[in-house]
Automatic annotation (TrEMBL):
Similarity comment: family membership: Belongs to the glycosyltransferase 34 family.
The keyword rRNA-binding appears for this protein: no
Signal peptide boundaries: none
Stated name of the protein: Nucleotide-diphospho-sugar transferase domain-containing protein
Protein's organism: Lentithecium fluviatile CBS 122367
InterPro entries linked to this entry: Glyco_trans_34 (IPR008630), Nucleotide-diphossugar_trans (IPR029044)
């Protein structure tokens, strides 16, 4: 991450201190009230669950305040960060005349889509909660929710019912169609995909990727390698785009595209599409084999490196620069989430030490006994 300027009296500093103070107050309040906490029979000292929701600070306030000092403006000319395995800072520059200059707030929906309820919810209801035991699905979903709160976007977790005749991931086109009419954009992520930078708004990425009003759907390509030349390729040897991360824009074409996609397995408009009801990659293959060829100019395909894969992947440079998608090592999604939150939590502390706020640093000039 990149630190905001460190001048002692900057407004950012004031904001950081305020956010810090609010958090300390909130956590202090919780600690003060803790004797009344209910401790569950199965719970260890680490996983007591507060059952009275009126005592839990609203998560959206906490995260908004926590990240406020770090947030990048939608059209900030540059974005500077420590890239994976690169010793020095990396600076990326927006193209000239960025289109998205304001936070779009509730016009953006961050969307999770599952056919099963979260496993962690079941455990929570049995009185257990422990971050270290949380599975990657909840880790991913919680990080999406947090991202939405940090930037003031809307958030929904859709629990869709299973199809009887096709793979569960086929729920995507109809779910997008049901909600896009109420938003300008839907940002959809699979549970094993997440934003790498919690403090970088989607507007900045849309600017960076040059998303235009005509782009109904944006996705990142999958990797391609000589060794597995066919694995991610369609029948014309074109690499599939991955549906694990999608930016869907409410424009004149979007409903037509989603309808074509959802109805693809009917074999009416696209003979042979029903083949993809169950085999891999289901709706993703159907989109790659059929839909995108009818809507080329409305579909934006990003390089794999930008919004697919994760650190350590070498094929097609899919290292998840902005959006990470853990095809394997899925538990690492929790590490990304944790690192982002720790950055935001500890920045005000670092600043206090750097600026000797409250006179916490004492200089001992002479090393003698009093
Ligand atoms: C925002 O842009 C300015 C000017 O290019 C730059 O100095 C600053 O570091 C950028 N902010 C972040 C968080 O990267
Ligand atoms: C990092 O920056 C320093 C100072 O500019 C330079 O000497 C060094 O070679 C850079 N390291 C890398 C890996 O680029
Ligand atoms: C398939 O596409 C890849 C690039 O994505 C290319 O390197 C390869 O030669 C192509 N294979 C055939 C049989 O055309």
């Amino acid at each position: 991450m990149m630190l905001p300027p460190t001048s002692a009296r900057s407004p950012l500093f004031a904001l950081a201190v305020t956010a810090g103070a609010v958090l300390i107050f909130i956590f202090g309040l919780l600690a003060w009230q803790s004797p009344a906490q209910v401790s569950f029979p199965h719970a260890s000292v680490h996983d007591e669950v507060v059952t009275d929701s009126s005592r839990t600070p609203a998560a959206h306030d906490v995260f908004r305040l926590l990240f406020a000092p770090m947030k990048v403006e939608p059209a900030n000319a540059t974005f500077t960060f420590y890239d994976e395995n690169i010793e020095n800072l990396t600076t990326l520059r927006l193209p000239a005349r960025p289109r998205y200059t304001k936070n779009m707030g509730k016009d953006v929906l961050v969307l999770d889509l599952e056919t099963r309820p979260l496993e962690s919810t079941k455990q929570y209801k049995e009185g257990q909660y422990d971050w270290t035991k949380l599975n990657h699905v909840s880790g991913g979903v919680f990080s999406h929710y947090t991202y939405a709160q940090v930037h003031g976007y809307d958030y929904k977790f859709i629990r869709a019912h299973e199809f009887e005749d096709r793979h569960a991931t086929w729920i995507k086109p109809s779910a997008l169609a049901q909600h896009i009419k109420n938003y300008k954009f839907i940002v959809f992520l699979d549970a094993d995909a997440t934003f790498r930078f919690m403090h970088l708004p989607i507007e900045w990425m849309l600017n960076y990727w040059k998303i235009e009003p005509m782009h109904s759907i944006t996705m990142a390509l999958d990797p391609w390698s000589v060794e597995e030349a066919d694995y991610n390729s369609d029948r014309f040897n074109r690499t599939y785009a991955n549906t694990g991360f999608m930016v869907v824009q409410n424009n004149a074409k979007i409903m037509e595209i989603l309808k074509a996609w959802h109805e693809c397995p009917d074999d009416t408009r696209y003979p042979g599409c029903s083949y993809w009801k169950e085999p891999k990659f289901h709706e993703q293959s159907a989109f790659g084999e059929h839909i995108r060829y009818d809507y080329e100019k409305y579909v934006k395909e990003l390089p794999c490196a930008e919004a697919n894969g994760f650190p350590g992947v070498t094929v097609s440079d899919c290292q998840g620069r902005f959006v990470r998608h853990y095809w394997f090592d899925k538990a690492n999604i929790k590490k990304d989430f944790r690192d982002n939150v720790m950055n935001a939590l500890t920045l005000p502390i670092q600043r206090m030490f750097a600026e000797n706020a409250g006179g916490i640093i004492h200089e001992q000039v002479e090393n003698v006994l009093p």
